[in-house]
Amino acid sequence: MKLINTLLLLLVAVAIFGQESSIIAENAKVIQAGTGYTFTEGPAVSPDGKVFFTDQPNDRIYVWDETRGIELWSDNTGRSNGMYFNADSQLVACADLHNQLVYFDRDKKKHFLFENYEDRYLNGPNDLWIAPNGDIYFTDPYYHRDYWKEGHTPAQDVRGVYHLSHEGAASRVIDDYKQPNGIIGTPDGKILYVADINDRKIWKYGIQPDGALSGKTFFAPEGSDGMTIDDRGNIYLTMGKVWVYSPDGEMIQEIEIPESPSNVCFGGKDRDILFITARTSVYTLKMNVKGVQ
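^ that's the sequence the OP posted. Answer follows.
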């Protein structure tokens, strides 16, 4: 009897631990927050918890509020794709109409930030992450756009990843990928995760004081269009579904979405709502973990 009681207590403890350690809130369901778009991308959370996302083929940025829903924010975005808020609450975007990095001020006015590397245009900036010190890391693959002029070809000789320092100095920090895409860093600015989407691999790097990367390490056997990170250090990937990996590279959660997801971030006033862009729609999921900035 003593053995049976001990086993029962152990099972209860395991069940409680499982509930407490689950990253998804109890009884939470994936909810469609909006639909009718052509291809949603680039979710970025503002300081007040609103999520800005793009309908990239239609050159639009929308904003989601957990109480008010979704509203059109801009229809002149430079074909913005990946986005991220900087420390000045400016929305920085990869805008591939003219293969630039741009930012939007609080009046929605678009400003040029960066476009040339070694006197040549970028291939088409896709996704970015801004480090705590203001440095920007962005991916520059090549996806041919039908709104480019006829005969448009890649300007850069590799599909690379770049570092743009807060002082304006640019350097190519990755040059050996098939197709770089999703990118995210840790809130302490020490680690960077980058997806080689065509090679179905996620790589992990140490970030050096000068912005260079070191210690390339295999992290996960997945591609990813967009990525985010939570306050436990888990990494969220988007490839067919949302895949969640622990900081040690262990796959801990699969989240099925009605449409194939393209990108993901945490939003809401408490940063505990997972916001997922997925083709023609956007979705939300209540979480037990929170996003980090």
